């Protein structure tokens, strides 16, 4: 599978590019997966300013931390806060992560199936080359669309995640990767190592990286 890596001078430039891409792909509405974590929040804030048919936009996080509803560390809370919850009539679907990994994975399978195929999937990358809540100890080959996750090396340990199978049901996957701490993980991914992002396959895979994360050599 080929990747197209776009190099940006700063994290801000990379974030603005992601915001523009989301606005373009969702200008008439559509269904998108938004990666969790801190990196993409600036992009989501910029995306929230876009003039698109928000009432036709359906969003879901790539994964969720098993924390109580409304907890500030939940990805759905951080995404809604970044995009803006007041004036925009988009739909942000949430995993029932407060039920715990197994019950929320079961409860969310039908919802995710109803959202397929996605128009665009955006993802982050961890320093250990995880994406969403997909680590090597998770059943990455599962036919399920939503996976329970225990023992996540990144707290909290209990999570629920879209599977590689679900994340591959799209025309376009875009990774936003910034900061020197991600450089080695990105190099491993681009070298074709069997890291979780390598299990996510789509016709178009873009990587938006800033200078700090861009590998000197792949
Ligand atoms: O729940 C999460 O934390 C995310 O889904 C996770 O996969 C994240 O995208 C990476 O860990 C990068 O996180 P940062 O952008 O905060 O470095």
Automatic annotation (TrEMBL):
Keywords for this protein: Hydrolase
CDD domains named in the record: 6PGL
The reaction(s) this protein catalyses: 6-phospho-D-glucono-1,5-lactone + H2O = 6-phospho-D-gluconate + H(+)
Keyword presence, Ribonucleoprotein: no
Pfam families noted in UniProt: Glucosamine_iso (PF01182)
Any one GO molecular-function label of the UniProt entry: 6-phosphogluconolactonase activity
Pathway(s) of this molecule: Carbohydrate degradation; pentose phosphate pathway; D-ribulose 5-phosphate from D-glucose 6-phosphate (oxidative stage): step 2/3
Enzyme Commission identifier(s): 3.1.1.31
Glucosamine/galactosamine-6-phosphate isomerase domain: residues covered: 12-201
Domain of life: Bacteria
A biological process from GO: pentose-phosphate shunt
Record Gene3D superfamilies: 3.40.50.1360
Family (UniProt): Belongs to the glucosamine/galactosamine-6-phosphate isomerase family. 6-phosphogluconolactonase subfamily.
Functional description taken from the UniProt entry: Hydrolysis of 6-phosphogluconolactone to 6-phosphogluconate.
Protein name: 6-phosphogluconolactonase
Species per Swiss-Prot/TrEMBL record: Calidithermus roseus
Gene: pgl
């Amino acid at each position: 599978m080929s990747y197209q890596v776009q190099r940006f001078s700063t994290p801000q430039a990379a974030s603005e590019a992601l915001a523009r891409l989301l606005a373009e792909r969702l200008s008439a509405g559509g269904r998108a997966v938004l990666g969790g974590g801190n990196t993409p929040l600036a992009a989501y804030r910029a995306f929230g300013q876009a003039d698109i048919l928000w009432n036709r936009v359906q969003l879901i996080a790539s994964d969720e931390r098993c924390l109580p509803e409304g907890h500030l560390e939940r990805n759905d809370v951080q995404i809604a806060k970044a995009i803006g919850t007041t004036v925009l009539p988009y739909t942000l679907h949430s995993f029932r992560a407060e039920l715990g990994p197994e019950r929320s994975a079961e409860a969310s399978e039908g919802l995710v199936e109803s959202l397929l195929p996605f128009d665009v999937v955006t993802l982050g990358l961890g320093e250990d080359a995880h994406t969403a809540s997909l680590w090597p100890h998770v059943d990455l080959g599962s036919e399920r669309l939503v996976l329970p996750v225990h023992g996540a090396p990144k707290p909290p340990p209990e999570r629920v995640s879209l599977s590689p199978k679900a994340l591959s049901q799209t025309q376009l996957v875009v990774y936003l990767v910034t900061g020197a701490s991600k450089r080695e993980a990105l190099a491993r991914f681009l070298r074709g190592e069997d890291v979780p992002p390598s299990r996510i396959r789509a016709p178009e895979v873009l990587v938006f990286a800033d200078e700090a994360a861009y590998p000197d050599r792949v």
